[in-house]
# Entry
Amino acid sequence: MENKVDFNSAVNVIQKIDLIHAELTRLTNLRNDNILTNEYFEYILQIHNLCFEIEHYQGFLDSAVLLVDFYISINDHYALLEVIEKIYDYISLIPEVEKFAWMINELSIKFYMDGMYEKAFTNCLLLYNFAKEYEIERYIVLSYVNRGDIFRLIGSHFEAQEFFLKAIKKYEKAGPDSTSSYLIALENMCESIVENYDNEHKDPLPYFNRIEILIRDFKSFDYTYYVGIRAKYYYKLGDYENATIWFEKCLRLYKDVDSEYDFYKYEKAIEFAKMHYEEKNYCDAKKALEKYDIENLEKDYIRIQMEYLKLSAHLAEKQSDLISAVKYFNEYINLQDDESSKNKSCHSRIERIIKEDEYRQSVKLLRKENLSDHLTKLFNRKKLLQDLKDMLESKDEGVNYVIVMVDLDNFKLINDINGHVAGDKCLQAVGRCLKDICQKYPGSAYRYGGDEFITIHKHNNNMKIQKLGESIRNCIKKLGFYSEKDNIKTFVTSSVGVYGFTANSDLRARDVIKSVDELMYKVKNNRKDAVSVENTISQ
# Structure
């Protein structure tokens, strides 16, 4: 990795923003050239947090795009969702809302490709409402496409095709900016029709013809997926000669594309092998499975695994290898039980979502998801800001509160030495600890971000605020999390700031947070594992 920029060397905020802009341009170019490796992650996160701190919202958004790519690559749904929620809190201040729509869309796709269909569907509703509010036609089309694809994946083709039709009709109004989304809608409509061909002999040719027109007019588009659907269609018709031509063409095309398309490559290879099997060409069927290394496909591809196991069992049976046949059948049955129960449950839940008004339902679900931290189950920063604002603007001026800010000492070593799983367990334990404190001293606990937490309590005459801070510090210390290097144990402790204040309309939420933040850092920069208190409540 090239040398990082020292942003602290900037003499003022404007110069700092110029440095950030130059670095984000460089990092984005690396991303576009596919050479932005994971070692850049901490650096991008540093830039992202710096942009938030200095209220440079364009940089805040651009760095978030790079973080989203990283979290997708490591399959971290919750971190991905956290970035999107944080952006959503400040969406009115962000100039390029289309980038945010892209993030929501990426998360929707990630959820449904990983089988998390309910979360995906809820996210699609959020995308639809957001795109509609900001008049981003392309993402309205994509929200229909994604919802249709969720139904297609769980076998509900009637509902799937309804959504694909909505996408196709919307494109006719949206215009050329939505052409790539229109292609996806056409391809998925064809896929659904072909998959359901045995139950309903619907003709996909009108949609094939539309795709052929796009092939003629937009030569830069990738039509590999369409070629695979066409192969499958001829196979369903029993036209094995044409099916073979299209399957071979499709698999040649997939050989030259990125590994992210492995799912489709495996799917078409299995369909090709299945066709050979039905023609009783068992040797060719087995060769097709072996040629594309399907036995080693990723474990996330449950549906493809099931198809592979079922076909392999039949082939082993036909070739009198009964031991292998029994092995494959048992593995298939185990996966089938899990997947069928999941799809059935998922379908009924999604139907309930659809029956309610889309906008109200998505907003309700968004609020619920948006006010809590997924890892610790505490309230999140957005909820904190809302609650503080309500306290300060309440008609009951003069109410006394205590706010506590907690920053974990030595937590980074837990992540670096013990790993992120251990780090997550530590954060979850701290969350439980703070919930217990809020039972003893009635209040609310929030994850402010990273390894920083906040609690807010209503003050009463019997409350000793120093004792409250010490209770939190001792509770975290007793958890006993530590990292070990060179036989030296370094324990996780906490730097705690405690600030007592009286609510009034002249105070702002950021003033209160700044006051308690300064108290916490007084400890952090001095000796750590201690409490700093300031009480402005009039006795």
